[in-house]
Design a protein that fits this description.
The chain is an alpha/beta fold and about 450 residues long. It has 17 helices and 13 strands. It has a domain of about 170 residues: Nucleotidyltransferase, domain 5, CATH 3.30.420.40. Helix content is about 45%, strand content about 20%. Strands 1-11-10-9-12-13 form a six-stranded mixed β-sheet, sandwiched between helices. A five-stranded mixed β-sheet has the order 4-3-2-5-8. Helix 1 packs antiparallel against helix 10 and helix 10 runs antiparallel to helix 13. The longest helix has about 30 residues. Magnesium ion binds next to loops. The site of magnesium ion has 6 residues, from loops. This is Phosphotransferase.
């Protein structure tokens, strides 16, 4: 029973260090608002890059024609084509294909990665059916969704600042990713032009606004996390160029890199960060996104196995392998409602090689999932409140409806995460202010969004 006392002590410490009471979330929200201001003011004054997207025209609904989109940024990359039919026709037809990128290409050479992508795109274009129409003499146009921090130099060019998530290819950093893709398309003999380079958040925002005019920001909660929103161009102090006619500019916050002393972190987080591909960076992302939640849980379980023999005398060897416990598996265990937690038992066996686990141990696993998921979801909600405050929705006086477009597998599939996020949003905003805030799933917003932006920035306009 010394074992169980030890288990309880570790859990109690975890719970305390991960606590996110309303007051703390308000501090995080305020810190987010401050960092937003600082990032708009100067180039290096904030943990938030607040990147200027060069998107100053958002979809109106009038977009027409055939457009392609390519989404690179997660585990899978997707290619998509849409036939847009203006206000009446809307999205007349769409087709997409998902391709998984072999791990070795994510850390190999730039040419190999872009060749792989261009070749998959070429195959997809070859399968274009008669429902899609490209007017004679026109070149196919593509919206390129690229979900990594890019220093945009125009709507269709930008240099890679750094890779994140599972990608790390030195030779691409500092290069124009549109040139990289264009050269690879040429090598594949693919006749197509990139007319918009957008972050997935910016694409999701465009797709969100196409569906709902009150959308002010898009949030990605998938493998990584990020946010984009519509800013007044004259509020961007660091912007040197001419003010756009629309008076607006979409800002890609790169909020995954947010950091604040108010963020609740633990030894597990510090070790995870230190051993990651990008130590010291993307601290907020490492607390809330799908790539990391399962890994945090693994680290806690490993400590419980070592210090309190949670899974028996021997520490399960597989539990020592970084990233073996993926967030979808964590989610499946967290949602297990069976009396004997048989899903937890089965997942522990399948993914960690733990052949038998006591009910008590399974309950501990669920509790760890709960603590880690809740902290992430609630911190994400706090960030959203920070954006609302920046937009003047802080005091509950505004009646203007503001909507968020959400995208990403974590938000979409992890129900308990989503519910915690929505509850925290209400809790921090208060009943009255939250009545004018809505959150909608932008189903594949980023794919459609990128093609809409390719359309609004077409060279044939
Ligand atoms: P990406 O962010 O890579 O573009 P998605 O938006 O599809 O891709 O998100 C995929 C991520 O969502 C996965 O890496 C995983 O972390 C998370 N995810 C997917 N399915 C689930 C699930 N059932 N439960 C929890 N998280 C999930
Ligand atoms: Mg994505």
């Amino acid at each position: 029973n010394r074992r169980w006392a030890r288990v309880a002590a570790v859990l109690k410490e975890l719970e305390e260090q991960c606590a996110t009471p309303t007051e703390k979330l308000k501090e995080v929200a305020d810190a987010m608002t401050r960092e937003m201001h600082a990032g708009l003011e100067s180039e290096d004054g904030s943990t938030l890059k607040m990147l200027i997207s060069f998107v100053d025209k958002l979809p109106t609904g009038d977009e027409r024609g055939l457009f392609y989109a390519l989404d690179l940024g997660g585990t899978n990359f997707r290619v998509l084509r849409v036939q847009l039919g203006g206000k009446e026709g809307r999205v007349v037809k769409q087709e997409s294909k998902e391709v998984s990128i072999p791990q070795e290409l994510m850390i190999g050479s730039s040419d190999e990665l872009f060749d792989f992508i261009a070749s998959a795109l070429a195959q997809f274009v070859a399968s274009e059916g008669v429902d899609f129409h490209l007017p004679e003499g026109k070149q196919r146009e593509l919206g390129f969704t690229f979900s990594f921090p890019v220093k945009q130099t125009s709507i269709a060019s930008g240099t890679l600042i750094k890779w994140t998530k599972r990608f790390n290819i030195k030779s691409t950093v500092g290069e124009d990713v549109v040139s990289e893709l264009t050269r690879a398309m040429k090598r594949q003999g693919l006749d197509m032009q990139v007319t918009a380079l957008v972050n997935d958040t910016v694409g999701a925002l465009a797709g969100g606004i196409y569906d709902d005019n009150d959308v002010v920001a898009a949030i990605i909660l998938g493998t990584g996390t990020n946010a984009a929103y519509v800013e007044r161009a004259d509020a961007i102090k660091k912007w040197q160029g001419p003010l756009p006619n629309s008076g607006k500019m979409v800002i890609n916050m790169e909020w995954g890199n947010f950091r604040s002393s108010h963020l609740p972190t633990t030894d597990y987080d510090q070790a995870l960060d230190a051993e990651s591909l990008n130590p010291g960076e993307q601290i907020y992302e490492k607390l809330i996104s799908g790539m990391y939640l399962g890994e945090i849980v693994r680290r806690v379980l490993l400590r419980l196995a070592v210090e309190a023999a949670l899974f028996g005398e021997e520490v399960p060897p597989q539990l020592k392998v970084p990233f073996v416990l993926r967030t979808p598996v964590m989610s499946a265990m967290h949602h297990d409602t069976s009396a004997d937690l048989k899903v937890v038992g089965a997942k522990l066996q399948e993914f960690l090689g733990i052949s038998s686990s006591s009910l008590k141990a399974r309950k501990v696993v669920v509790q760890v999932c709960d603590i880690v998921a809740k902290r992430g979801a609630r911190l994400a909600a706090a960030g959203m409140v920070g954006i609302l405050k920046k937009l003047g929705h802080s005091n509950g006086k505004t009646k203007k409806r503001m909507a968020f477009a959400m995208d990403g597998g974590l938000y979409e599939h992890y129900t308990l995460f989503r519910e915690s996020l929505l509850a925290a949003l209400k809790e921090v905003l208060g009943e009255e202010a939250s009545a004018s805030v809505s959150v909608t799933m932008a189903n594949d917003g980023s794919g459609i969004g990128a093609s809409l932006l390719a359309a609004s920035h077409s060279r044939y306009l």
